[in-house]
Design goal:
- The chain has 96 residues and is of the alpha+beta class.
- It has a single domain, classed as Outer Surface Protein A, domain 3 (Alpha-Beta Complex).
- It is 39% helix and 26% strand.
- The chain has three helices and six strands.
- The protein has helices at 40-48, 55-65, 70-86, and strands at 9-12, 17-21, 24-29, 34-37, 53-54, 90-93.
- A three-stranded antiparallel sheet has the order 5-1-6. Strands 2-3-4 form a three-stranded antiparallel sheet, with helices on one face.
- Helix 2 crosses helix 3.
- The longest helix is centred in the last third of the chain and has 17 residues, at 70-86.
- The chain is globular.
- It starts with 8 loop residues before the first strand and ends with a strand.
């Protein structure tokens, strides 16, 4: 797992099987033969990282869409990104 820094580039794993149900994403993890259900905020993050986006860009986008203070947004987005990465649902790369 890469260390998250503002310039970390994020993108969802390209070969995932997923669908939307009431503005929330459900992913089928073929490797584990299981489904992953995301809440609406995690679903929005998942949608935004369809194409490469830096962590900093993701924070800014989420701040513009939700009424949340900067520190809370940064913490929640980072936690969600780490969770997605641990589940193998995104790829990340750090740029210096």
């Amino acid at each position: 797992m890469n260390k998250l820094i503002p310039s970390t580039q994020l993108q969802r794993k390209p070969d995932l099987i997923f669908g939307n149900i009431d503005e929330e994403v459900v992913i089928f993890d073929i490797d584990k033969d299981s489904f992953i259900h995301m809440n609406s905020v995690a679903s929005r993050i998942f949608e935004l990282i369809e194409n490469p986006m830096s962590l900093e860009q993701l924070h800014k986008q989420m701040m513009s869409e939700y009424e949340i203070d900067a520190d809370t947004c940064e913490q929640e987005v980072s936690n969600t990104v780490l969770d997605l990465e641990q589940r193998g649902l995104l790829v990340s790369s750090s740029k210096k």
